[in-house]
Amino acid sequence: MKKLALLALGLGLFAIPSHAQSADASIGYSYFRLGNSNGLNENGVSGSVAIYKHWFGIAGDFGIYHASPGGVSTNTSTFLFGPRLMLKNPSKVNPFVQGMVGGAHLTASGFGSTTDLAFSFGGGVDFPIAPFLALRPQVDYVGIHESGQTVNCTRVSVAVSIHF
Predict the structure, then answer these.
(1) Most buried residue, 22, 69, 124, 130, by most Cβ within 10 Å?
(2) Is 26 helix (H, G, I), strand (E, B) or coil?
(3) Are the beta carbons of 49 and 57 closer than 8 angstroms?
(4) Run of H or E residues at 63
């Protein structure tokens, strides 16, 4: 799994020529629902970095989420890479969609840990708040493929995005 993540990162860094037109980086709060109705509510931080050529970008998305139900500490870390399509327009309100693949590392105190294949799709909008700075609400579906089954997750984030 680590080799797959490193390969995706390498491709992401070298896939777009060095004369890319723009880039952005974001960091913010995320609510992560691990599983469906009997799932677990985790809170944490997520961030992303993307390089764009016009409207097409390659993005890396990373998150760390935590919960302590009944005194059991649980942590989920996600590392995802893939294409992002962003509609850039004169109003500077820029919606985007993305589809990513990578991994998720889950740990629970006393129960061990596992690293599994993860994938996501979703999107958000960048609302300008200052030159080169935007507020980014985002919603993503995250699937974690564990032991032959897919755990359905939802991530809702609010971040600050810096555009270069």
Answers:
(1) 124
(2) strand
(3) no
(4) strand 56-67
- Is there a domain that residue 156 lies in? yes
Give the H or E element holding residue 108: strand 94-108
Tokens 């037109």 correspond to 21
Which among 59, 54, 45 is positioned nearest to 8, based on CA atoms? 59
The values of phi and psi at residue 36, to 5°, are -90, -130
What's the pLDDT at 3? Answer: 52
Count of the separate structural domains present in the chain? 1
Mean residue pLDDT of the chain comes to: 88
pLDDT, residue 16, reads 45
User: What is the Cα–Cα distance from 55 to 94, expressed in whole angstroms?
Assistant: 10
CA gap 33, 123 in Å, rounded = 17
Range of the domain at 44: 2-14+24-163
CA 139/CA 39 separation, integer angstroms: 18
The answer to whether the pTM exceeds 0.85 is: no
